[in-house]
Design a protein that fits this description.
Helix content of chain B: 25-40%
Structural class of chain A: mainly alpha
CATH topology of the largest domain in chain B: Rossmann fold
Number of helices of chain A: 13
Structural class of chain B: alpha/beta
Shape of chain B: globular
Mean pLDDT of chain B: 92
Strand content of chain B: 15-25%
Largest interface: A-B, 26 and 40 residues
Oligomer: heterodimer
Low-confidence stretches of chain B: none
Radius of gyration of chain B: 18 Å
InterPro entries (chain B): AAA+_ATPase, ABC_AA/LPS_Transport, ABC_transporter-like_ATP-bd, BCA_ABC_TP_C, P-loop_NTPase
Strand content of chain A: under 5%
Number of strands of chain A: 2
Helix content of chain A: over 70%
Pfam families (chain B): ABC_tran, BCA_ABC_TP_C
Strand order of the largest sheet of chain B: 6-7-8-3-9-10
GO molecular function, one term (chain B): ATP binding
Strand order of the largest sheet of chain A: 1-2
GO cellular component, one term (chain B): plasma membrane
CATH topology of chain A: ABC transporter involved in vitamin B12 uptake, BtuC
Radius of gyration of chain A: 20 Å
Order of helices and strands of chain B: EEEHEEHEHHHEHEHEEHH
CATH class of the largest domain in chain B: Alpha Beta
Number of strands of chain B: 10
Protein name (chain B): Branched-chain amino acid ABC transporter substrate-binding protein
Shape of chain A: globular
Order of helices and strands of chain A: HHHHHEHHHHEHHHH
Amino acid sequence: MTMNRETILNIILAVLLIAVPLIAQAMDEPFIITLATKVAIFGMAGVGLNIALGYGGLVSFGHAAFFGIGGYAAGILASHALNYEPIMSTPFEINGTTQMIVIWVVALIASAVIALLIGAITLRTSGVYFIMITLAFAQMIYYFAISWPAYGGEDGLSIYVRNSFPGLNTLDPLSFFGLCAVMLGIVLAFSAVLIRSRFGLALQGARQNGQRMMAVGIAPFRVRLVAFVISAMITAWAGALYADLNRFVSPSMMSWHMSGEIMVFVILGGVGRLFGPVAGAALYIMLEHLLGSTFEFWQLPLGILLLVVVLFARGGLIGLLAGERKHA
Amino acid sequence: MPEAILSLSKVTKQFGALLASDNVSLDLMPGEIHALIGPNGAGKSTLIKQIAGEIKPDSGEIRFAGRDIGELDAVERSRMGLARTFQVSSLMPEFSVLQNVVLAQQSVSGKIFRFFKPVLSDASLLEPAMAQLERVGLADRAQMRAADISHGERRQLEMAVALALKPRAFLLDEPMAGMGPEGSKNLTDFLGGLRAEAPILLVEHDMDAVFALADRISVLVYGRIIATGTVDEIRGNDDVKRAYLGEEA
């Protein structure tokens, strides 16, 4: 089987993402490793959004809520464990934990439940209304976090020691990067499989023509709702990792700026392209780092770039380098 | 007499001052092609939409396969075996021709929520889908994007998708629209053989096709059925000549 250009490009991107922190380690540049970890985590958040936005055509402007739910799952569980305070003591005792695996499971379940509720309401609308109502829900959750003093309110929550993963020193930057990269790999593989499955075909059909879907006897609503939930879970998983990267979680993870940023990763990299969010997150963070250190208004060139992409390169970075998308 | 597979009784639909369906009653019997003709704006497509469940009648009853389907939506009616084609082709433009049929095929299989197995290596979907494409003569276009095939081929693809649903009745809304003479003739031959599989309610402007195919014809004018009968009866009907055929001639 011959590989198409997009597959080759994806492999190059994956190799670069792994090579850069390894070289940084050799050159004793831990900050670069942190940047690469950020790319992996933001890429993962974008892979989540891409399932809704790219494959399902659901422009969610509220994915920061799920990113933040993942973050708070890490923060809340860790703070209870580190302070030796049970989360609840009656009728039975539930304790916090510093085990990432448990935190992830909690993050996935919590985000799934909330996405199911939000999706069940928002997916009855479409277009601009869907964008606005997802934003409204995210803002509700954002203000809830701000006004919840038990978990730091506006100031957020610190995680004094990064949570642990069996057999790994998560405090070592390169090890933590490796963990994040593996998780990114898992969600990328899942996303690639999902989109070729029966469900993936139905989801892409629902994006293209709802009338035709109903005529062949498939309710687009159910397909979109399941996609929305899966999408939210992946973004929440990334959020849990992000809290551990910063050892800090605050309501700003849930702000509409964050929703916009996740959307920018997807659009910059290429909507509906497997590695699009990773390419977009990498470009974004490079711009932020390179321009941000020399130029106070670094978001101005970013804005112009985004405008150029939307107007002239709909396939984003991946589309520019690998050509138009082949049908799935 | 056998029971009708589809029967409308006193279906009425009003849009503001416009009476789109005025007490429409009609039957589709097993094994028949029942053509619905009428001038533009007579309410033919509106009637199809009400049967398919896309819009709700104001009053009247629609029965399908022995059941009142008034409360069912378009998805449920399709799943009951009512397959419709659209007057203006309504397909998945970014999908390949084959994927368009596979989507219908997987709906029939009832298994949509499968997340891991690649759909395009699933022989239980691909083989029947290819068989439908062969029936309508589109097998050599299977890998092309639906947006890139010709208008006539899109009409054929609409038919293949409807066939894949293995329906108990077809609702065909102007299947010949925009087809060349040869395409129309091929489709006419094809539909003639299809009535044995499932009866067809056929909305069509191409009178050659209607007279060649129809077992019965109903004439719709201003939302009202003014006559129902065999081809010869309709040809000889003075009201129909005045209201419709006369105008065309």
